[in-house]
Write a structure and sequence with these properties.
The structure holds two protein chains of two kinds.
Chain A (H helix, E strand, L loop, with lengths): L7 E5 L4 H12 L3 E6 L2 H9 L4 E5 L5 H14 L5 E4 L14 H29 L3 E6 L3 H4 L5 H21 L4 E8 L5 H4 L3 H9 L9 H12 L10 E4 L8
Parallel strand pairs in A: 1-2, 1-4, 2-3, 4-5, 5-6, 6-7
Chain B lengths: L7 E5 L4 H12 L3 E6 L2 H9 L6 E6 L5 H14 L5 E4 L5 H10 L1 H7 L3 E8 L5 H17 L4 E8 L5 H4 L3 H10 L8 H12 L10 E4 L8
Parallel strand pairs in B: 1-2, 1-4, 2-3, 4-5, 5-6, 6-7
The chains are: A alpha/beta, B alpha/beta.
The structure holds nicotinamide-adenine-dinucleotide.
Chain lengths: 246, 220
C-alpha cells in the first residue's frame, strides 16, 4: 500500500537510531535514499543495510557541508521528493547548570540544523514542481516539556512551530510538512542519558516499554507516502501514550 | 505494506461516505469487516461495493439503542469474531458512541492480545469537535494502554461528500480558499490515516489525534 518506488529521499542523521531506521524503511518501500550524517562511516554502514541507499557527509551545524551534500545529492540522484531530518542531540542536566555555549549547541544543532537542512532542498523541490514531503523530527519534550531537557525542549518546540508555519508557506507548492515526536526510543542517544532519567522516562510510558526506532520510522514513512496526501502541518507522537493529544 | 490479513474490524457508521471508504480500505488490506449503520440500505451498499476477495458484511444497528446494539454486537462477534479493530465514524455524540465502542472492549480485553480503536471526528467549527475528541481519545487510551489496546483519533477536514456537494457553491469555494492545500479531502485520504492507526505500523502510537485537513487545522 505504501509504495515509494523510484522516489528520491534525503535522510539526515541516517547513521544511527531513528534516522538509520528511517533510511532503511524508505529504501524497503522502494525509495532511493541519500543517507547523510556527520559520521560518514556510520552512514556507510546504514547504506550497506539495503539496496538503493548512498552515504553522504553532512554536518547540520556547518552550512558549507549542507550545501556540498545538497549539490552532490542533486547531481547523483536528482531533486528529492522526500526530506527527513533526524539529526539531533541532547544533553541532560539542570537548566541552572547550563551555559550559553551549551544553549547555542542545543538550539543550533536541533532547531537551526533542521531549518538549514530543509531550506537547502526546497528550491530543487519547488522547481521540479510536483510537490514533495518534508518530515521533521521533534520530541515529546517539545510538546509538553521535560525536566533536565529545558533548552532541548525549547529547540524541539521550535521545530514543531517551524514545521507548521512552513506547511502553510509550502502548501501552494504541494509540499506537505509534518512533524514526528518520538518519545523515549531505544537508540544510542537514549542510552547516553543518565540511568535515573532513563528509568523515570520508561516508567512514565503507559505501554511500559521504549519505542523501537522502526516504530518511529514507520510514522515518518507514513507522512512521506501517498497515504498522507491531505495531511500537512500536523504533529504525531510515537510515544506509547507518554503524551496524549494531537 | 499495510497488511490486516486475519484481523476482524468493526466500522460503526459504515453507511456514510467516509465510513464506507474506511470499511472498503480496511477490507482491501485483508481484514474481515463488519459494516454497521442505522441505515440498512446505505450499509448494504457498502458491502456490495467491496471487491473480491474482500470481506464486508453489513449490519443494521443504531448506536443510540443500547439493547438493540448489544444484540447486533453479539451477532458480529459470532460471525467475524471479537474484533481486533473498532472504528467509530457515526458522527453521534460521544455520550452515545462511547458505550457502543465500549461494548466491544470486554471481548477484546478478555482475549488479551490488544487491539485498536480509531475514532473519526470532524475538525469542527471553532474546533469544538476536536477538543471533545481529544477528551474521549486520551481517556480511553489511558484506560486501555495496560491491555495493549491503542486508541487514536482521525479528525477529517472538509471532505468531498454528497453532504457538501448539496451545499451552495460558495460554501465549497470558501472552504477551498481557507484550506492551505486549496481542495477538499477525498474520503480515501481519511481512510488511509485510519488504516495506518489500525496497522502494525502504529504499534507505539496511542492517545493521538491526527487531522487530515489539508492544513486547515494545526492544533497544538
Ligand atoms: N532516542 C530518543 O529517545 C528520542 C526521543 C525524542 C526525540 N528524539 C529525536 O530523534 C532524533 C534522532 O535521535 P536518535 O535517538 O536516533 O539519535 P542517535 O544519536 O541514535 O542518532 C542521531 C544521528 O544524528 C547524527 N548527528 C548528530 N549530530 C549531527 C550533525 N551535527 N550533523 C549531522 N548529523 C548529526 C549522529 O551522528 C547520529 O547518526 C533526534 O532529533 C532526537 O532528538 C530521540
Amino acid at each position: 500500500m505504501i509504495d515509494l518506488t523510484g522516489r528520491v529521499a534525503v535522510v539526515v542523521g541516517a547513521g544511527s537510531g531513528i534516522g538509520r531506521a528511517t533510511a532503511l524503511r524508505l529504501a524497503a518501500l522502494g525509495a532511493v535514499v541519500a543517507a547523510a550524517d556527520l559520521d560518514l562511516d556510520s552512514a556507510a554502514e546504514t547504506a550497506r543495510g539495503a539496496d538503493g541507499v548512498r552515504p553522504y557527509f553532512l554536518d547540520v551545524t556547518e552550512q558549507g557541508t549542507i550545501d556540498e551534500a545538497r549539490d552532490a545529492v542533486l547531481r547523483d540522484l536528482g531533486a528529492p521528493r522526500i526530506v527527513v531530518n533526524a539529526a539531533g542531540w541532547d544533553s541532560v542536566g539542570p537548566f541552572l547548570d547550563g551555559d550559553r555555549a551549551l544553549w547555542e549547541k542545543l538550539v543550533g544543532l536541533n532547531l537551526v540544523g533542521t531549518i538549514a537542512v530543509v531550506r537547502a532542498f526546497l528550491d530543487a523541490m519547488i522547481e521540479r514542481g510536483d510537490g514533495g514531503r518534508v518530515v521533521t523530527v521533534a520530541s515529546d519534550a517539545g510538546r509538553v516539556g521535560s525536566t533536565g531537557e529545558t533548552v532541548y525542549a525549547g529547540a524541539k518546540g521550535g521545530i514543531i512551530a517551524f514545521s507548521k508555519s512552513l506547511a502553510r508557506e509550502m502548501a501552494r507548492h504541494a509540499i506537505l510538512v509534518n512533524c514526528v515526536c518520538p518519545g523515549p526510543t531505544d537508540t544510542p542517544l537514549f542510552a547516553s542519558l543518565p540511568e535515573r532519567t532513563r528509568l523515570a522516562l520508561e516508567r512514565g510510558i503507559p505501554l511500559r516499554r521504549l519505542a523501537r526506532p522502526e516504530e518511529v520510522a514507520a510514522a515518518i514513512a507514513f507522512f512521506a507516502s501517498e497515504e498522507a496526501s491531505f495531511i500537512t502541518g500536523q504533529v504525531l507522537s510515537v510515544s506509547g501514550g507518554l503524551t496524549m493529544h494531537g | 505494506m499495510i497488511d490486516l490479513t486475519g484481523r476482524s474490524a468493526v466500522v460503526l457508521g459504515a453507511g456514510s461516505v467516509i465510513g464506507r471508504a474506511i470499511a472498503l480500505t480496511v477490507a482491501q488490506l485483508g481484514a474481515s469487516v463488519a459494516a454497521v449503520d442505522r441505515d440498512p440500505l446505505a450499509v448494504a451498499r457498502t458491502a456490495l461495493l467491496v471487491e473480491p476477495p474482500g470481506d464486508v458484511r453489513d449490519y443494521e444497528a443504531d448506536v443510540a439503542d443500547a439493547a438493540g446494539f448489544d444484540v447486533v454486537r453479539r451477532e458480529i462477534e459470532i460471525e467475524i469474531g471479537v474484533p481486533h479493530i473498532v472504528v467509530e465514524v457515526t458522527g453521534a455524540a460521544d455520550a452515545v458512541t462511547g458505550p457502543a465502542v465500549r461494548a466491544f472492549l470486554d471481548g477484546m480485553v478478555r482475549r488479551g492480545r490488544g487491539g485498536r480503536i480509531v475514532l473519526v471526528r470532524g475538525v469542527g467549527a471553532g474546533h469544538g469537535d476536536r477538543d471533545a475528541a481529544v477528551g474521549l481519545t486520551t481517556s480511553l487510551a489511558g484506560e486501555l494502554a495496560g491491555d495493549g489496546i491503542l486508541v487514536n483519533c482521525v479528525c477529517a477536514g472538509p471532505t468531498d461528500t454528497p453532504l457538501l456537494a448539496a451545499q451552495p457553491r460558495w460554501v465549497r469555494q470558501r472552504l477551498e480558499r481557507e484550506i492551505p492545500l486549496r481542495r477538499l479531502a477525498h474520503p480515501d485520504e481519511i481512510a488511509a490515516a485510519v488504516a495506518f492507526f489500525a496497522s502494525d505500523r502504529a504499534s507505539f502510537v496511542t492517545g493521538q489525534v491526527l487531522s487530515v485537513s489539508g492544513g486547515l487545522t494545526m492544533a497544538r
